[in-house]
Design brief:
Blueprint lengths: L2 H13 L5 H20 L9 H13 L4 H20 L26 H8 L6 H16 L3 H5 L6 E2 L4 E5 L5 E5 L2 H14 L21 H14 L9 H15 L2 H8 L4 H5 L6 H11 L11
Antiparallel strand pairs: 1-2, 2-3
Helix pairs in contact: 1-2, 2-4, 3-4, 6-8, 6-10
InterPro entries: CB, DNA_brk_join_enz, Integrase-like_cat_sf, Integrase_catalytic, Integrase_recombinase_N, Integrase_SAM-like_N, Recomb_XerC, Tyrosine_recombinase_XerC/XerD
Keywords: Cell cycle, Cell division, Chromosome partition, Cytoplasm, DNA integration, DNA recombination, DNA-binding
Organism: Acidihalobacter prosperus
Length: 299
Amino acid sequence: MSESAVEAYLDALSGQRQYSPHSVAAYRRDLLLYQAFLDARGRTAAVATAQDVREFIAGEHRKGRSATTLQRRLSAIRGFHHFLLAEGLATQHPALDLRAPKSQRRLPEVLAPEQLGQLLAKRKDDPLAVRDRAMFELMYSSGLRLAESVTLDLIDLDLGGGMVRVIGKGRKTRDVPVGRQARAALVDWLRARAELAAPGERAVFVGRGGKRLGERAVQQRLTRLARESGLDVPLHPHLLRHAFASHMLESSGDLRAVQELLGHANISTTQVYTHLDFQHLSSVYDQAHPRARRRKTPE
């Protein structure tokens, strides 16, 4: 398997399929490992067999790779062989009928509303602190992914209408509401932003140097804010999105609406949040359903 074929496939993912840079980088790592495995066997992808692919995945499993990683690696290999067939560079697809081990779906952790209030309560005049509060208020208010937050441009904000336009996975666009507190925090930040932003910079959230803020910086700032707020829980940006989803679903019960707000292509992805507060849902059921309500025992 030549590196040029791999790069051509990755270019197609990035350009035609609109895969994110993170996904393309992960696929590159997966395919380079696969290429090294085939090279050691003196084979190329054009003549690889199902047994080759099976033994590569089995070897990765023995190394302790998670089911999620194995699924992604097999997906990368499967897509690459499909590309080779389409381009006339191979005559067979060795990975077509192979399946990786299934991973257990883990329930996401969820912050309580009180914990979020504690996290977002601190107010400082420092421009970076003002930015952080606006950013985290927005992520919780609108359920934004980390990548969606750092790629926001000023033109995407409609604070008057209380909306933000988000470019999600697969370059799909969605418009989501922005809550009152997030709008107020964003107004404060846009005033302070003028002190930091470089001329012509389009990004909503910028760093100390005036350029678009990176994902790693956001993670570090959230960890720092959690520590300063006295939250004794490991905190990462995606927990704000999880909190948005679970709190919205608990309050509204509208799974389809939450799916749209999160930008999930498949409702099964959203359904994981229906299991997060089973005790609460059971309590509602016990109180509401005619055949669930307990009759009072005669005295």
